[in-house]
Batch of 3 targets.
Target 1
Amino acid sequence: MSEMFNKIADALENSWLTQARPNQLPPDGDWSIWAIIAGRGFGKTRAAAEFVSAEIESGRARRVGLVGSTASDTRDVMVAGESGLLSIGPEWSRPQYEPSKRLLTYTNGAIAMTFSAEEPNRLRGPAHDLIWADEICAWSNLQETYDMMMMGLRLGKRPRLVISTTPRPLKILKDILSREGQDVAVSRGSTHENRDNLAPSFVNSIIKKYEGTRLGRQELDAELLEDTPGALWNRDLIERARISVDAVPEMTRVVVAIDPAISNNEDSDETGIVVAGLGVDGKGYILRDASGRYAPVEWARIAVALYHEHRADRIVAEVNQGGAMVETTVRAVDPNVSYRPVHASRGKITRAEPVSALFEQNRVHLVGAFPALEDQMSSFAPGVAGSPDRLDAMVWAITDLMIQPQMPNWGLYELARRGELF
């Protein structure tokens, strides 16, 4: 019995209420949505998980929905992560988790089911009295998932939604925040507030590298940044270009475009890898963004895998920096792929302008959401520093599919301009 008392005393001493910062605790008031808008590493996952757990333990929540960007994100972050529902709270109140059923069962009979934005239709049937939506700005089917989620939030006297996300200026999030003080309560915070609990390597490499930059203001300080003046794309244009995967026609051509980084370390630029297709309707479709920091053999393997997965017609790669090494690396993975090198003879703005014009003419669509790529698009303007590698790859892909075919002498022009025609 004394052992049980000791456990209870220890749990009370180390309870979330004694550890949390004020902006990690649920706000007062009669709100329906609590939006935790905070930077990376702030502790928003822990704050949301603790709120969900407390609502279940009190009996106020009996049927809970957990919605993440992907099935693995929901499982690995919201459920089994370091700050997930299986990790917090005392041992005796933790739920039983059945991954195959996407189900958590609590000792008081309450249940929580996991969902992902990749499959919004799974939210059509179940009804909930509480939903936790994590990182909604990264959801691939944001509008459809949000609509299905809210239609299912109909049980009990006071159904509630808690959102934990790093902000991006998306229409849904802006609409939610515009209701602050009405049915929406908002808690805001930055990465810096929790730096004492973050790994020194994160503080030294990530925070110091990005603080003060536009990306840092968004990802660390959680600022809701609007469009960059002079940017070739704005958020309204991007939203108009977005379609669901169900609306994609048959493709007549598909390319995988690579904008390779010239180094491979923690300070390296990303390698842009974008898959795009030309539909039977004559429009371009951005199908995949697989960009990231990779060693050369890694980005080559990813690009070749996407080439086969999407049955692409060719791989297009910028070779200004890597030269013949780029093709050699790709062919070391698969010597039989169709490959075409491209040279960046003009500035990034000049190359991107025709592609931006195609977006304005409603001739290029984004299939789902590509948060990192869209951030580069909406902040890409003359005089803005940075290397928009994802954007570069997208520009190369659309140029190959839609711009170069309209200019039959493009290749001769480029050779003559570089003095290589004769």
Target 2
Amino acid sequence: MIFCFSGTGNSRYIAKKIAETLEDTIIDLNVKIEENDYSPLQTGCHVIVVVPTYAWRIPRIVSNWLLSTKLLGAKRIWFVMDCGGEIGNAAKYNRQIACEKQLQYMGTMQIIMPENYIAMFNAPQVNEAKQIVEKAVPYIENAITFIKAEKPFPIPRNNLYDRFMSGPVNPVFYRFFVKANAFLVDKRCTGCGQCAKKCPLNNIKLINGKPVWNKNCTHCMACICYCPVKAIEYGKKSKNKPRYYFEQLKIK
């Protein structure tokens, strides 16, 4: 069984590629988390978690869901993490999740995909994003090969920088940066509600036809990147930056 959480579509694409080859089932964690659904799941022996990288670890909302949900029948777990640059020492914390779930840890694989975190970085233009995805395909296929053979992934890089970013930096980043109070909407907003529909935490409500953000935000960037008229900004940090979501690449 494949568990997938995705903000702007990168992880969803990877999960679909894995599912097609392995003829496996995808469980959409966006829906599970949005509905506060922590009911037990019959998974089969193999569990594959496909997620983006948030502050050099898997998203907290995903690790919380995994730790709170009984995975019936599961024996082994692989983690596939896409990122715009690097995953740090995320493998250490994924191993801890596996240990707590009493599952055999089968490793963590990094896949470079187009950047979407425009609250801090620049997202690529469409043509550049397509090239990044094209380069990612062999790595996705490599991950599939290991899973299909029931073998652990190769051990990822683990230097002092990786340990620092996934260790001390991660909680600091969540405390000081992962907030919704910088999101704002301008006069281009049509009140379509797309941002509210895309939010996996039900953190956005339409009031008088305009989105209002509450405090429960994971910085998935779905609201700002999927806005069809680019009416949402993250303070001044997103000004004049391209928005990115996978579907705009029109890659099957």
Target 3
Amino acid sequence: MVPLLEETGAALADYILRARPRVDSPYLFLSFTPPVGPFKCAAPVSRIVRKRLRHGGVELGRVAGAHLLRHSLATQLVGQRRPINEVADLLGQRSINTTALYVKVAASQLAEVALPFREAWHDRLCPIPRREG
């Protein structure tokens, strides 16, 4: 389970109570375009995300749409060192190999850990001779 920020929870409650179309549907987010109902594909969500990013002055890169939401969540979870199988479950991915692509974002964290070991290993293999003097 992923914790919900207070402001996100408030915005979600506001959407449910005031903005969500009053339609008998088990889906939380619905299309406002008739026929009102669940999104049939990711394209409308991608358009919404891109529009909001542009509105916020964010320069759009290669990944700017519905996938960006998934990528952001996965990146954040991997950065928090959550278990890879937990990240896969949250994303609804069947294969850990698919989720493993997000581990690349943790490369800088791995470098922080690897550097001291590399230096220690180097010192062990190539001790610096002491000068007598």
